Amino acid sequence: MNKRLFRTQFNQMENIEKQVLMESLAARYDMTFLGLHTFDRWGQSCTTDIFKKDGREFVFVPGDTVTLGWEQFAVGLNQESREELEYLFREWEMERDPEEMIRESMAPVRQAAIGPMLVGRELEEINWEPVKMDDPRLTVHPDWLKEFRDFAWSDSSSLTLHQSARIERTEKGFQICIYNHTDYDALLAMLENRGFSLPTADEWAYLCGGGCRTLFPWGDGLDYSMRLHWFENMDEDENRPYDMEEPNFFGLSIAYDPYMREVVQADRLTTCGGDGGCNICGGLGPFLGFLPCSPHCKPEVQEDNELNGDYDFYRPIIRLENYD
Question: Are the C-beta atoms of residues 238 and 302 closer than 8 Å to each other?
Fold first, then answer.
């Protein structure tokens, strides 16, 4: 394995050297090289390369050996997070040590050797397939078409018929999708057929936290100055991203919405980066609501292999296992 593909050596390279190396990667994997970009966030930084393939953007993420998992605060809860948890404990009429409670949700501390990867920058939907209005799978359902016509005359931005069909208003007109039931094995087979994989839980934790030892990439407590999905009304500027949705130090939009579970590679359907919104729906507040987005949170093994298009999403990767 080329040592220059690992973080210490890669970060020491001059940009011109990086570009030559990355252009060779682009040629090998039939990607378009878009250029170097520096991503600097939460105390970590990486000048890496952006690629494009099949309409999606990838970044090169160098490998590393890192400590993953969590057992104690590295810095300690900030005042806002501690006050939020103390309020919940009073409401529940229970006495708990916050550190002990959080530890129950965290994966054990471990060392992990992470190989270099090309990583999809954005999460992607699994079950929804874009179609035209005259698709026979739509026209066979006149009740769906009636709801779509009613939607077209409304002021709504989107309409979803549960696990059936969806229509969204766009600048160019309407985007229509139908829902395809699928399972974990079918997703893995589809990705393999296209030359992609899913990250493992350890790889996902590295992509999310970069080896940070704090509970979140930015610290042990929740940063309440950030614009948090589900806890801030964005009507005034709907196009601006939520803070956690913006690219991290690897250039990835990752672990920003607790409702969005990211499917990872495992023996059976396993997810990271969200709990499907369970804590938020349960009224547990921002801190516990976003706790499943911690890079150290235990991966969640699902009850069966059926994928849920409302909550399950995926991120394609290419492992550079045999690149010299």
Answer: no
